[in-house]
Amino acid sequence: MSGATGRRRFLRHVGTLAAATVVPWTHAASGTAAAHRTWDVIVVGAGTAGMPLAIFAARRGGRVLLIEAAPRTGGTLLLSSGQMSAAGTKLQRSLGIDDTPQEHYDDVMRISGNTANPEILRLAVDHAAAAADWLMDCGFKIRAGHPVLSGGHDPYSKRRYFWGERGGLSVLEVLERELQPEIDRGGVTLLLGTQVTSLVQASAGGPVSGVVARGGDMRTETHLGRSVVLTCGGYISNAGMFEQFEGVRDYGDTVSSFSRGAGITMGVAAGGYVRGQECHQPLFNAVLASNTVPSPLLLHLLTDPAHRPAWEIWVNVRGERFLREDTPSFDEKEKALARQPEERCWVILDDAILQASPSLSREWSKDDIIAAFGVYPLFYKAATLAGLAEVTGVDPAGLRKSVLDYNRAQAEGRDSFGREHMPLPIAKPPFYAVRMQGYYLLDTAGLGVDSRLRVVARDRTPIPNLYAAGELLGMAALQGRSYCGGMSVTPALAFGRLLGESILPLKS
After folding, report:
1. Residue among 393, 391, 390, 388 nearest 429 (CA)
2. pTM of this prediction?
């Protein structure tokens, strides 16, 4: 495949994802929001948590108003890889895998260094299997060979990690199919392209009794409800809020443009608070398309030694190596990158390594990679190390020292970082660099909730009638300062289903 062909394929992929976020769901809502004076449940956000919540609440006889700011349902599932994990599933039992929620809990705590929220994590693992079983009973098609131990994150101790052939779209297809009958019979009224602007509440901390929403025609309406559930995503597309809670700029444009922190704003105004900011951690291995902020992702580099052992070295802006490049731990790489200025580093190699090593990316061929130098802004080439330092902005003295030290270690077979795979020195001009940038698919911080998913004040007092689920809870609650496979999509599904089954009293 030529470099041009690879780039066209990448742009087609990005265009497909972008289109998916704006094409309205053809099975539109039936009825109008004025059909009931007071709703049993108002759900703000028709995504991974909001859709199952609406489905199960309607099946219990509830009158549900489901409001979505985007022109279609799905939320982050339209862009997500849809990775899930659950212990004690029917799938595992059919394969002879003996697994329990306690083992799942222990694995997340091990990977996260005991930084996940014990209360919320326990709730998630205890209800994950039921949510996964329901999804598969409804026709979800699992990817061949799954479940697995790992994939992009540090491994679990048991095979409980799985996803579908079409990523998040595989999950969305099931949810839309299950939601449509509830819309058709009038149990759920769905409002698309409608922005909830505030909660109805006499005073902060008091009972929430509805929402104020603005439709595409810019008219504002008040909808009253016995319970309001915020499932409207996080703040990752709100640059100011992201920097406030994460402490860094969001360099990568990677998620839905509707994740603008509306749920955070409303939850805090209602008397809630935000927790988990201390657990910020970037993902590792992205190359951005440009120097603009935020920039779309261009591609992911292969940094997992199980698929491509490192031939290069990685340096920060001071030209210093900061990590054993062939470490098998994703978590170790992510934590190391978080300590570097602007959460970025440069992959440094020479012509001999470029020609002899496998492609730097699974997404592009080796020819595509070679052709990228001098074409893409964050692919650099120079005749000397000093020249490479100049075009990258890396400190020249630091870069020269790091290369000399590495070459000495490669010749002697002993590296100060403990690296084992060192096939070639970095010595043959021209020299090359690729800038890797930390990026984010999830928010770290989120609204504080209790074990019943009620939004709470800092003193743990629940705000009456107000609940939250999904990404709005923040990554830290479920994964701490780490990334644990499947611990975003599955808890959102599980919590949505749990609320749908419990938020209403049983009807006689």
Report:
1. 388
2. 0.88
